[in-house]
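Study both lines:
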Amino acid sequence: MEILKTWIMSLAGAAVLTALCMAITPEGQAKKAVKFVCGLVMIVCFAAPIIGGLPHISVDMGRFSADAGDIMARAKENTETVTRTLIQSQCETYISDKGKLLGLEELEVSVEVRWSEEGYWYPVSAEIQGAIGTPDAVQNLEWYITTELGIQEDAIYWS
C-alpha cells in the first residue's frame, strides 16, 4: 500500500511541477522543449512501478509536490499583499492629486482597504491630514472620494 501511495504522490508532484514549469515558460521553442521534457518526466513517473525502479524519483516527486504546494500558497499570499498595497497606493494618489487640482495643499492621505466577498480589495476609509484650502474645495474632494472611490462620507476623516 505504501508503494501505491508513493507512486500517486510522485504522479501528483510531477503534475504540479510540470504545470508550474509550463506556466512560467514563455511561448516559442523553449516552451516546446519544456513540454517535451515534462512529458518525459510524467512518463517516467507513471511507468516507474511497472519497470520496477526508480523509487527515489517517486519519493523526490512526492517532496516536490509538497514543496510546490507551499510555494503556490506563499505566492498567492504575496500576490494578495502586493495587490492590497497597490490598491491603497493608487487610492491615496488619486485623493492627493484631486486635492491638488482643487487647490488643497500639503495633503497627507492614508486609505484603508478590505477584502470583498467577490474576491478583490476595495477602499473603505480615508484619513486626510494637512488640508489647507477653502471649505468648498474640501467638500468637492469629499464628493470625489465618495463618488469615485465609493468610500462612505462618514468614513472620511480630516485632521
